[in-house]
Structure formats: structure tokens, C-alpha cells
Fold this protein.
Amino acid sequence: MPSKLIEGAAIIGQSGGPTAVINQSLVGVVEGLKGKLPVKKIYGMRHGVDGLIKGLPLVDLTSLSQDTLERIAKTPSAALGSSRAKPTEADGPKIFEACRANDIRYFFYIGGNDSSDTCRIVHDLGLKHNYELRCFHVPKTVDNDLMGNDHTPGYASAARYVAMAFMSDDRDNASLPGIKINVIMGRHAGFLTAASALARREDGDGPHLIYLPEVPFDTDKFIDDIRAVVAKHNRCQIAVSEGIKDKDGVEIGAKLIAGDKDAHGNVQLSGSGALGDMLANLVKDKLKSPSGKPPRVRADTLGYLQRCWPEPSSVDAHEARQVGIKAAQEAMTGAQSGSVAIIRMSNHPYRIEKRLIPLTDVAAKTRHLPPEYIKGHADVSPAFIEYARPLVGELPQMAKLI
């Protein structure tokens, strides 16, 4: 039930991995709050809730010009700085000390599933500390793995980048035939790796093989798959999720990387080329020409460029702005907490709705690529193409002579 509005300031934070359109959401929240009573001030957190806990100075967003806001909106990555910190019970007093000092009553947090959990934690701490703080999660993640959402702002732009990267890389692979492995972001959900299939225009175009974290990865099948594709096309382009798992559900990349974990227990996979190198070496070892010479094999890890390339999907940019506005509107109609979700209403024409759902429906939960979007053990289905195509916008047309 909507409650009476409370007078005070609003604060906005950005969390988790940045995206090409996360600042559209930031600007959307500001636009949705600007000039609205009873919001007296609009602040930004430096580096998310971690900065709030550490007492970093707040950024006053109240009087930024529309021209400045538009330039911020079109800038990739997190303008306020991001964080992967997860607040604990002991952080409560510091959080609410900052809130009391600045009369903050509205809390907006832009991020993925870990960030939605942070938003839930802050909301629950407010209740425990008897401090009225209305908390709203604004969705963002290139992984596209938020429960309750058809898709998530940030995903479409990263998917567009992946599709275009594979289109150009496929032409390179056709020019100098060999075996090419590209490792793509996506720890638990294969949506971004699946987007590589949008690169296909004609029979024989890559990617020829797509390996998703939802399907157990078998090295023997992997080699057999490549052997069959090379026999047919004299080359093979491969998309591999960084989160592929063995038959026991163990992440193959995490086993290879001796790295630190973040506050949410995640090993950082995207900053390492270990998985691509391992797979390339496996292919060189297992596949030999009749003369015994290993094949031409290369591996790339697409890395952080996937999430911050400054040419986003226009659909993504628009929707990212709108979910920020929606969060502000819900706060200004008396909602006490929630997460904004994107619901697809139709494909032809493409149409969505934005709804506020409970934080507990999203927080710390992971959505996976649905089975109907998966074809066999190394491909995606036509249903996925139908799902993803409206999100990424028009892709370039490439010509062939041979």
C-alpha cells in the first residue's frame, strides 16, 4: 500500500560491473525526482554503499543542468564510481549516520542481483535501526540474469557488441582459416554468449559452436565438435561462456584462476585469459593434421569492452533511462521499496511494461537462459534469436566475394 510521502533528500548509488547505459538510469532517477516535493536534495554516492560507509563526500546532483545530465547519460561506465561491497550488520550505524547527517529518506541503487540484495539489506537495516528509508533497486547487468525481468538494461548493448565482434571476427577467421575461440562474459547465465548467434547471416557463418554455462561442458565432445566443423567448413569459430561448468557443476575457469573473491563470493573471471588459453592448448594437443602438425588456433577473451563500448543499443539506452524514471515515480507515489522490472508484452510490435516488484523477488537470485532458448549442447534455438533481435537494433550488413 502506498504511504504518505516523507520529506527529505534522495541518494543514488551505482554498483557492480558498469555498463554502456548505467548512467542513463542515473539520469533517469534524477529527472524523475527533480523539482518534486518533498525531495529537497538529490545526492550521489561515490563508489556505492562502500563510499557511504567510509564517509566519502556526497556528490550534489540537484542543480546539474540538462546539458550536463545528457552528456553523463551518454557516457559509458559508472559516473559515480561503482563497488562490489556488501554491507553487514556492523555497517548499519555508519550508513544511517550518513543518512541522518544529510536527511536522506530515499535510497536508489542501480545494479544487478548482488546490488538488489544490497538494497534489500539496507532496507532491512533501516527497519532494524528505526530509520525510515525508502529503498528502490534500479536494474542493470550485462549478464541479463535478474529474476522477474524479461531483460535487463545493459544487456542489449553488450549483446550488440558481442554480435558485431563475432561478425567481424568471423570474416577474419574466413580470410585466414583456423580455429578461433572467443570467451564471453556470463558466470551463471548464457544470455550474452548466446547473443553471438545474432552474427549469423548465411549458412556457414560463425559462430559454429556456442557453449553455455547451462549445459555441462565435456572436453571430448568439444574436440569432436570442432573436428566435425573443420571437416565441413575448413575452419571453426567458437563462442564460450566464461562460466562453463563441468558435469559436476564446477566452473572450469574458476579452477584455473587462483584469484581473490569479492564480497559476494565471486571469483573474478573476466580479467583472465586462462580459460581461452586452456581450451586453445587442448585443441592444439588433441587435433593434429595428417602430418602431425597442430592446427592454427587462437583464443581471445572479450573482457570488459563488452560492457562499456560507447555505442549502445538505442533500445537499451531508452529503457535504461525509463527504469530510472519509473523508480523515482514509484517513490513519489508513496511506495516504500521495490525493484523495477521490465516485462515484455509483445514482439510484433516490440512492447514492454515497467513494474515495481518486491526486492525479495530479485535479491541474490539468478535467472538462467531458459531451456527453450538452447539447442543441443553447443547452440541456441530460433526462439532465442526471436527474443534477442529486437533488443540489439540493426546490425551491419557484410559482403562476401568468395
User: Anything to note?
Assistant: The chain has 13 helices and 13 strands. The two ends are 64 Å apart (CA to CA). Residues 8-153+312-361 form a domain with the Rossmann fold fold (CATH 3.40.50.450). The first helix runs from residue 22 to 33.
